[in-house]
């Protein structure tokens, strides 16, 4: 049981501070009277809290020109300083690194990408991350010490501390203490998350899944991965490995997708997206072997996604990754799910496309900061069993 | 935000009452002094609350003989009256109906079963439920109006209101308003849950999964189902269909388990457990066709469970249902999961066996009553986003 009796003045101050800050962020530039009304706190309390927040730099008095001047001396107005700190969302992929920059409100104010070779070592890849971040910060005129949190999305099973337990898609990734390595560069909290998990968070925040809290994001590619939200919260699994449906093709000794999509008998390289795209192009032109290869591939994708849907029962499946944009993936998937699932979910294409992973990473950074700034409930609530 | 300022005297009374009741149930027969110490409430508050609880019949003064008599006038002691109300946990299966009876503390004080024909209609099956309950109550000397909550576990996808959305295992089950039908008999809250979900809850409560909050229960049979706990809470899925992995065999037009297990070319009847057991017996005796059939069946079960494990990433898989007890199921399952899952879970056999579903149903009834009696947090907490 949380203690409800007794009083902890510093806790009360923190609660009041978070309540006022939240109200400030939600409103445009409220007066003290507005804040008193919205929060239900007394005017002296609100005044004291606002003074304190101005001291931390999180709040500033809005220019008097914004206020009404009719009465000679207008009421003072205040606003949340989103520019008091900055956040980064970073995707570390096999072909490129992408970075998004925002203020404390999560609004994107800058973006940058750098290409990276599939075969790059972990050190080389991290160097590209640092270069992309440095470029972006310089262009945006944001000093590095203004960063308050960094989110990172990357392929692989990621431990809670940011270590990559298993990551076969990127050379040198398995065992890499990715969080620790990046924390050395940033000196602020770094959250590392599986790329499909980050994309799920992104689609829920700004993409195709804004209207549901129970969704699965499928990163459709040769080895599909997935991320799930249950009740609006990321389901990472006990060991961070939830949604690793790509391993399903190993079961029953089925052939790999690389073989399924081959038109020559020789498997494609798992990361050779161009070769895969060519097979799809050939199929559109009517090449029989390509048509058969694509059908095999789609059948496999449908099977993997259906297994996930049967286990999780989401309201919505969002399909992203490079394969989502190809013709002939979404409709067959929808049709087959309707045929085989007891309660078929809606199927939608990713709205964020290539930006999904970095956007989700940014949201994770924002979550971290919001928890710090606004985490009132965390302190005063107790959890049922 | 929950209102933290201002005071609601009736809310405060409820909170204090729940706190005292919980302390009373946890302790043996505490004195007012004990309760004051444990709850941190003032003595007059505790006295008032205990008076109120005695009024409701939930608390009684323990016999003075239990107290110390050394001081002439011993301190009064109080105890929670588990016998102030009763709970039922009911399994409605294809071959039998099982009922457990407990007091308000969830301790089982009676049990009964009745056989029922596979082919029984929904009405006949419900009649068997009523007969089993009536028998049990009579034998235990518990009046029907002492029932405070009833939990029910049954095959099928069950809606939140207790309607069976889809239930092919029992005749007439699909579309049956099972909760509504049973509420007519009981005049107390009735919680209906999918049987595998109920079994998952049971293994977590009293069985093989007491040490983890992230587990999957697999009801191993011809058409396997599963129930999952995530963070100690049942994951029902958006439409209550989570874990329906039995449908996986439809994908890719694989043959059904009934065909896999056949040694004659003719599929077995899906509910003919005896025919299935015979195939296993023949396999143990070395019959080649039976050995091959069992291998096919186990391979399928492993595939279905692996799909679930890859999607959910549990810490523990508990295998129950009739197939769990057969030789040659658990070890191959364990071995194959270790081979194919990125982070293989522990695999354990159900400890509750045939009692799992009814035990889980009883726990659901207990959850309901505890929420009513002890749900303090529910009222005073707020949820993040």
TrEMBL record, chains A, B:
<dbReference type="Pfam" id="PF09339">
    <property type="entry name" value="HTH_IclR"/>
</dbReference>
<dbReference type="InterPro" id="IPR005471">
    <property type="entry name" value="Tscrpt_reg_IclR_N"/>
</dbReference>
<dbReference type="InterPro" id="IPR036390">
    <property type="entry name" value="WH_DNA-bd_sf"/>
</dbReference>
<dbReference type="InterPro" id="IPR036388">
    <property type="entry name" value="WH-like_DNA-bd_sf"/>
</dbReference>
<protein>
    <submittedName>
        <fullName>ROK family transcriptional regulator</fullName>
    </submittedName>
</protein>
<dbReference type="GO" id="GO:0003677">
    <property type="term" value="F:DNA binding"/>
</dbReference>
<dbReference type="Pfam" id="PF00480">
    <property type="entry name" value="ROK"/>
</dbReference>
<dbReference type="InterPro" id="IPR000600">
    <property type="entry name" value="ROK"/>
</dbReference>
<dbReference type="InterPro" id="IPR043129">
    <property type="entry name" value="ATPase_NBD"/>
</dbReference>
<comment type="similarity">
    <text>Belongs to the ROK (NagC/XylR) family.</text>
</comment>
<dbReference type="GO" id="GO:0006355">
    <property type="term" value="P:regulation of DNA-templated transcription"/>
</dbReference>
<feature type="domain" description="HTH iclR-type">
    <location>
        <begin position="20"/>
        <end position="60"/>
    </location>
</feature>
């Amino acid at each position: 049981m949380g203690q409800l009796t007794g009083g902890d003045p510093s806790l009360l101050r923190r609660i009041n501070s978070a309540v006022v800050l939240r109200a400030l962020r939600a409103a445009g530039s409220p007066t003290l009277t507005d804040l008193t009304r919205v929060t239900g706190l007394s005017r002296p309390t609100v005044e004291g809290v606002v003074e304190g927040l101005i001291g931390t730099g999180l709040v500033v008095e809005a220019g008097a020109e914004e206020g009404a001047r009719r009465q000679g001396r207008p009421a003072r107005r205040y606003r949340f300083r989103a520019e008091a700190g900055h956040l980064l969302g970073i995707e570390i992929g096999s072909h490129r690194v992408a970075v998004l920059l925002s203020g404390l409100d999560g609004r994107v104010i800058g973006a940058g990408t750098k290409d990276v070779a599939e075969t790059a070592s972990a050190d080389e890849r991290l160097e590209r991350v640092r270069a992309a971040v440095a470029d972006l910060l310089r262009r945006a005129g944001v000093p590095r010490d203004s960063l308050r949190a960094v989110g990172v999305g990357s392929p692989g099973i990621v431990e809670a501390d940011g270590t990559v337990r298993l990551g076969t898609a990127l050379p040198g990734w398995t065992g890499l203490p990715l969080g620790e390595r990046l924390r050395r560069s940033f000196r602020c909290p770094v959250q590392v998350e599986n790329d499909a998990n980050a994309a799920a968070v992104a689609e829920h925040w700004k993409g195709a899944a804004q209207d549901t809290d129970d969704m699965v994001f499928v990163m459709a590619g040769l080895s599909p991965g997935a991320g799930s939200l249950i009740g609006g919260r990321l389901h990472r699994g006990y060991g961070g490995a939830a949604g690793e449906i790509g391993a399903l093709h190993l079961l029953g000794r089925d052939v790999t997708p690389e073989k399924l999509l081959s038109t020559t008998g020789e498997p494609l390289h798992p990361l050779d997206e161009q070769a895969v795209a060519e097979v799809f192009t050939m199929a559109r032109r009517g090449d029989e072997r390509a048509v058969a290869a694509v059908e095999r591939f789609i059948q496999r994708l449908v099977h993997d996604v259906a297994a996930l849907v049967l286990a999780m029962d989401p309201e919505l499946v969002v399909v992203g990754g490079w394969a989502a944009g190809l013709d002939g993936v979404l409709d067959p998937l929808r049709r087959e799910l309707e045929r085989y699932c007891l309660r078929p979910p809606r199927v939608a294409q990713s709205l964020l496309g290539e930006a999904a992973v970095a956007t989700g990473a940014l949201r994770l950074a924002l979550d971290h900061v919001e928890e710090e700034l606004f985490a009132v409930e965390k302190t005063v609530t107790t959890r049922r069993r």
